[in-house]
Amino acid sequence: MKSTMGIIMTGGKNTRLKELSNIRSSSAIPVGGKYRAIDFTLSNMVNSGITNVGIPAQYSYRSLMDHLGSGKEWDLDRKNDGLFIFPPYLSGEDTGWYRGSADAMYNNLTFLKRSNEEFVVIAQGNCIYKMLYDEMLEYHLEKNADITIAYREMHDLLPDELLHLGIMRVSDNDRVLDLQEKPLHPEAAIGSMGIYILQRKLLISLLEECNAHGNYDFVKDVLIKKLGVLNIYGYKFDGYWRNMSTIQMYYRCNMEFLNPDIRKELFIDCGKVYTKVKDETPAKYNEEADVRNSIVADGCIIEGQVENSVLFRGVTVKKGAVIKNSIIMQGTVINENSSLQYAILDKGVVLTSGKHLKGEPNWPIIISKNIVV
Amino acid sequence: MVRKEIIALLLAGGQGSRLGTLTKTVAKPAVLYGGKYRIIDFSLSNCINSGIDTVGVLTQYQPLKLNTHIGIGKPWDMDRINGGVTILSPYLKAELGEWYKGTANAVFQNIHYVDKLSPEYVVILSGDHIYKMDYSSMLDFHKQKKAEATISVINVPLDEAGRYGIMNTHENGKVYEFEEKPRHPKSTLASMGVYIFTWKVLREYLLRDNDIQDSEHDFGKDVIPMMLQEERSMWAYKFQGYWRDVGTIQAFWESNMDLINRIPEFNLYDPDWRIYTPNPVQPAHYIGSNGSVKKSLIAEGCMIYGSVRNSVIFPGVYIDEGAVVEDSIIMSNSRVGRDCRISHSIISEKVDVGSDVKMGMGECIPNESKPGIYNSGITVVGEGARIPAGTEIGKNVAIDMDACAEDFCSQVIDSGKSVFKGGVCE
Question: What number is the ipTM of this complex?
């Protein structure tokens, strides 16, 4: 891809993800049996030919750092460029804390200045979608835009899920007329995907200006304020897209992975999705296993019944256990004769024998990491 | 540079001709095994798990897949500045170019590789076997016995001993005689093809062996007997655990099937002794609403809409609705069409089985053209073959690599027949 670098924003504290985000940033939330949310955006960048990626990380980033490592699995352990993770730091002028998305980038302005790519793609780490940024860049050039924002018609989102998005209004030729960040009463279902393309030099000057005015947020203080001044265009995306904004959305997205068309779009079309390798053995099914319409990752040992569920790596399902409509994360053990229905079990949970947990379709029960039930 | 105490030399040049079409274009160590691995992964993982990070891999027969697989050793954490994995292929020299003439000659031709690292000890391995072994305990034994050579042995049943190289030892474990495939075995200790030598001693013997005109330059036949004759200190190190030479179709199939037992004798789930292999980059597998999987291993990226029983399925395999797969091994990225019945078959990589195909049914007649290879009732389909819809295939059938519709002269391929690419129909 023509001289482009990437920045992935990893977001702040998200209480709507409840227990799942207590210990991790929403970008590091496990999805689809073996991935973490950020794998999708990062793989999109790699598949678009971007080899210089910066990731400012602030909230609960230990698991994110652990996951990304040196970027080996994404082929980003490079001599030139590669993967850079930027936790906040103290210095002469800085407070050592990112006060917003623009502030996070401003604090790492050296990275932007030192890079030599002409364009920057800024994207969010907590969204699940497959997109090649090349086409968006072509569109950006064709429109002679200063900034291009990817948007999508979010008719498949529930009304209260729209509350967590930036809502846009675009003209017939896709010029962005209005952008409202998380409005209380969304006027339309056209939502920003949080993906922006602009020239690196323009980004640097916008960030410097924003900081000089004492502002910190990229959407509110840069994009919205420049709507009338700069050529800002919308780029329409028609594919599958979800953001990890609420537990309901998280649950729904995982269940949607069971749909073959969505799996094809995410995993087969336009390149692979890379993630950290765990060197697990293939999943083992014993005689009693009865698994239907489910995703099962390597390292699982299954002797029970599993239906409409997502099993992450190394999950053990013992005899007589029944799992339905649930998400079971890495290393969890479901013992004999227990049952789960509409449940999300975080990593390393142990469900002892004969226990029954049941949530509701729109309110799945959540068990936090390493809990023994 | 930190000097290496021990390095490994892995002999990976063997063809494994008794594996038939499975080794037509790859060396035996590169054959797929156990739902995601290649056979060589076990020796390489044993090395790194035993703390040996410097491995020379000696290749000769069809090395392309092996070389690609090993690369710079990343999956085994052997992409090192100091040490790591080195592929040692036969090469031209000023006077003459030559192939590796035997196992000892292969090491002899790479003396300069070992000399440069100048280790105290070398462990010689073959990339042909399925086992987990801590070479560092064997090295401790070697040092404790002040041995010049230590040979790892495993107890085999007396009636099978004649198929192996047998070590005859004193009570204390010191070896006094080595017999290759003896008719009347005196002991049941079979050599596993894992040797630790004190490098100085081995080096001297390799040089001497090279000068002997009628030597076959083989460790088992020449070097070890010569050392014993001269009463060098050679010890047998008893290994207990799972070890298989998957050299025949039958042994290969059985060893794969060993993995699907409830508590497999060979445990691949030990987090302290992982077996590493390159990452296939596939999503977690999916079992469809009408799919069913029992007593099987299923790897990443598979999509199972039919039913699978007693089988080992590699990454990226697609099994369509109504298909039934039993007692079979299906390798990476193959596809089994609607309503197929597959039984007792080994299907290689990237094979396309059309719908309504029946395979592995009928009488158990040994293969007519290669009765020595295909005789245990297992049908083998070579890499990239395309089997036309509705074909009925018997037992002990061999289907050549890349065979396609025109190569099938009939809808029915009886037991013991073969299908050759571009060849004459049988």
Answer: 0.89
pTM above 0.80, yes or no: yes
Q: Coil, strand, or helix at residue A159?
A: helix
Give me the pLDDT at residue A240, please. Answer: 95
- List phi, psi (to 5°) of B175: -85, 130
pLDDT of residue B363: 87
Strand B412-413 and strand B392-393: pairing?
A: parallel
B44, B287, B308: best mutation site toward chain A, by most A Cβ within 10 Å?
Answer: B287
Query: CB neighbours of A298 closer than 8 A, spacing ≥ 6?
Result: A34, A278, A280, A281, A282, A283, A313, A314, B36, B284, B299, B300
List, for residues A41-75, the tens digit of each pLDDT value: 999 999 999 999 999 988 778 888 899 998 989 99
Instruction: Tell me if B353 sits within 8 A of B382, measured CB to CB.
Output: no
- Out of A73, A292, A298, name the one closest to residue B299 (CB): A298
The token duo for B176 is 């006094």
Q: Which amino acid is at B423?
A: G
Contact B289 A292 (CB under 8 A): yes
Interatomic CA distance for residues B338 and B335, integer angstroms? 10
CA distance, residue A365 to nearest chain B CA (Å): 24
Query: Pairing between strand B54-58 and A294-296?
Result: unpaired
Closest CB to B288: pick one of A285, A290, A293. Answer: A293
Query: Are the C-beta atoms of residues A43 and A274 closer than 8 Å to each other?
Result: yes
Where do the DSSP E strands lie in B61-110? 84-88
Among A274, A283, A287, select the one facing B285 at the smallest CB separation: A283
The beta-carbon neighbor of A286 closest among B36, B75, B262 is B262
Cα B7 to chain center, whole Å?
21
Contact B275 A281 (CB under 8 A): yes
Shortest CA gap B338–chain A (Å): 17
Residues B263-274 pLDDT 10s: 888 998 888 999
Instruction: Give pLDDT, residue B93.
Output: 76
Residues 6+ positions from A225 with CB-CB distance below 8 Å: none
- Whether B294 and A285 lie within 8 Å, measured CB to CB: yes
Q: d(Cα B216, Cα B209) in Å, to the nearest integer?
A: 9
CB contact, 8 Å: B284 with chain A? Answer: yes
Beta bridge partners of B358: B341, B392
**B292, A34: Cβ pair inside 8 Å?**
no
Q: Render pLDDT for B130-141 as a digit per residue (tens, 0 to 9).
A: 999 999 999 999
Residue A200: which residues within 8 A CB-CB, separation 6 or more?
A: A5, A112, A115, A117, A118, A119, A120
Q: Which residues of B touch A298 (CB under 8 A)?
A: 36, 284, 299-300
pLDDT digits (tens, 9 = 90+) for A66-78: 999 989 899 999 8
